[in-house]
Design brief:
This is YcxB family protein. Helix content is about 45%, strand content about 25%. It is α+β, with helices and mostly antiparallel strands. α1 (about 15-25) crosses α4 (about 75-85) and α2 (about 35-50) runs antiparallel to α3 (about 55-75).
């Protein structure tokens, strides 16, 4: 049973929001698996360098391997930097949640997600992940009140 709800909240896409979004939505793999591509580039580049096949291409592949390894190691910082230099950074967002949909309105994004179009709702420590059309949207509990959190939690039972 769902109750009638109409909720509106406004928040800013600042650094703290992006950090929370990353920490709640990205699972970090601590194994060597994310480094496989970097290792492959380094091995091919080193092999080409040792056989003197093409020194420019080999140094390019070695550099590419180093950059790939750094990208994996500093994934959070790299992602956060890209978000902070985007045009949407530090803009205000108006979030509206009702029985039919979730609306996200800002200067750069105007999106409405109907509840019946959401494939899955995952509860995180600090919010909700909404899976919709091969994408994920994060809703922070900081921007929601108790009734809305309860409303969305009830929706997770049916997904």
């Amino acid at each position: 049973m769902t109750s009638s709800i109409e909720f509106t909240s406004q928040y800013k896409l600042d650094k703290d929001y992006y950090i929370e979004c990353y920490e709640q939505s990205v699972t970090t793999d601590l194994s060597l698996r994310p480094y496989y591509k970097a290792i492959l580039f380094l091995l091919i580049g080193t092999g080409m360098l040792l056989t003197q096949l093409n020194p420019y291409a080999s140094w390019f592949l070695i550099g590419l391997g180093v950059l790939e390894a750094l990208g994996v190691k500093f994934n959070k910082s790299w992602w956060l930097m890209r978000q902070m230099i985007s045009k949407a950074a530090n803009s205000d967002v108006l979030l509206t949640i009702n029985e039919q949909s979730i609306k996200i309105d800002s200067y750069y994004v105007n999106k409405e997600i109907l509840w019946n179009e959401i494939n899955k709702i995952a509860v995180t420590q600090k919010g909700f992940l909404l899976y919709h059309d091969k994408t994920r949207h994060y809703l922070s509990n900081k921007n929601l009140n108790h009734d809305v959190i309860k409303f969305i939690s009830n929706k997770t039972v049916y997904k």
